[in-house]
């Protein structure tokens, strides 16, 4: 991304024989303004529109409505934010005897709007298909599913003001915000507090992440799945993420096998995703969620997923692509769920 006052210099510096240049978004601010207008316009009172981006207040109200309309789905407290907002999740418990837990979360990075939108779609699909789809019925009968649409609520709210904001809203020194996906307690590392990936003063220093840990740690022996949904890149990644080198992981083959099955279903229903190891195949990140899920909680099937797209729109994914993104991920989750049933049911 290049500012308007530097575009001539930039184009001059990269213009050389054999190098082609393509402009994907000619005016980023214009796209942000259009997106903001879509979110804040008065919406018709005709039910919740899953194909729009929503404010957090709308998402919270949607959770209340969703629970009231779906039996054996409850709204549960998962954590709390720096600004004191309760983080809620939807718990699907269709079978009272089910003990094993599948946990998925979205919105840990504020600007990745398609992540919460996909989480809401996931809940919708589960509820709609339970009575008619034997795969979904088996998934929900055998496991307790917990879906957290937005973990970083403070940051998500702030993206109404600063669309590209990533972190939470904790003031640290002269700078603002902690990257929650660097604040987990597996291989946490210090970094300058003004960095965009500032990991906090110590592991689990933030109420959002410490709350998730307090919620999940007592249940670690029952956890069978941990997935943190991000955007963008179209990637399905397993541990380890804290190093750029491939290091020993006794479950690597199994993690990759299930990821490959999941990706095949995604690809068959939408766009291809690349499967890999988080650190070597994307970039090293200490204190990240997938390493926390595997290294701290002991969940074999711990993944970080980068949703659409591969860079054409990036964080500013058009609303027209929410449904295709959710549909392909849902297909992948059903394939993954089938593997969970085979192993744990």
TrEMBL record:
Protein name, please? Peptidase M14 domain-containing protein
The record's family statement is: Belongs to the peptidase M14 family.
- PANTHER family named in the record: PROTEASE FAMILY M14 CARBOXYPEPTIDASE A,B (PTHR11705), SLL0236 PROTEIN (PTHR11705:SF143)
From what organism does this protein derive?
Answer: Strongylocentrotus purpuratus
Q: Which residues form the Peptidase M14 domain?
A: 52-340
InterPro entries per the UniProt record, alphabetical: Peptidase_M14 (IPR000834)
Check the record and name the PROSITE patterns matching this protein. Answer: PEPTIDASE_M14
Which key words tag this protein in UniProt? Hydrolase, Metalloprotease, Protease, Zinc
Q: Where are the transmembrane segments?
A: none
**Cofactor names:** Zn(2+)
**What domain of life does the UniProt record list for this protein's source?**
Eukaryota
* SUPFAM superfamilies xrefs: Protease propeptides/inhibitors, Zn-dependent exopeptidases
Instruction: Note the SMART domains from the entry.
Output: Zn_pept
């Amino acid at each position: 991304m290049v500012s308007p006052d530097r575009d001539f210099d930039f184009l001059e510096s990269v213009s050389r024989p054999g190098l082609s240049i393509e402009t994907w978004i000619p005016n980023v601010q214009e796209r942000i303004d259009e997106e903001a207008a879509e979110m804040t316009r008065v919406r018709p009172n005709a039910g919740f529109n899953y194909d729009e981006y929503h404010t957090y207040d709308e998402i919270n109200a949607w959770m209340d409505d969703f629970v009231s309309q779906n039996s054996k789905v409850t709204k549960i407290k998962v954590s709390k934010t720096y600004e004191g907002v309760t983080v809620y999740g939807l718990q699907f418990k269709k079978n009272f005897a089910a003990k094993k837990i599948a946990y998925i979360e979205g919105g840990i990075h504020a600007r990745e709007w398609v992540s919460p939108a996909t989480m809401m779609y996931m809940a919708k699909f589960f509820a709609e298909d339970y009575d008619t789809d034997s795969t979904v019925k088996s998934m929900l009968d055998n496991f307790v599913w917990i879906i957290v649409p937005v973990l970083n609520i403070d940051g998500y709210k702030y993206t109404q003001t600063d669309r590209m904001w990533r972190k939470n809203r904790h003031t640290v020194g002269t700078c603002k915000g902690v990257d929650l996906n660097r604040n987990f307690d597996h291989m946490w590392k210090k970094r300058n507090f003004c960095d965009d990936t500032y990991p906090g003063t110590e592991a689990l220093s933030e109420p959002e992440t410490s709350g998730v840990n307090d919620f999940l740690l007592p249940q670690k022996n029952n956890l069978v799945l941990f997935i943190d949904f991000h955007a963008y890149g179209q990637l399905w990644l397993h541990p380890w993420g804290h190093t750029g080198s491939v290091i020993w992981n006794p479950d690597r083959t199994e993690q990759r096998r299930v990821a490959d099955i999941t990706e095949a279903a995604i690809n068959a229903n939408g766009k291809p995703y690349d499967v890999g190891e988080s650190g070597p195949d994307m970039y090293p990140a200490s204190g990240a969620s997938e390493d926390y899920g595997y290294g701290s909680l002991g969940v074999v099937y711990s993944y970080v997923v980068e949703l659409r797209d591969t860079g054409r729109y990036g964080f500013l994914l058009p609303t027209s692509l929410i449904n295709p993104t959710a549909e392909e991920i849902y297909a992948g989750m059903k394939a993954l769920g089938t593997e969970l049933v085979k192993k744990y049911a």
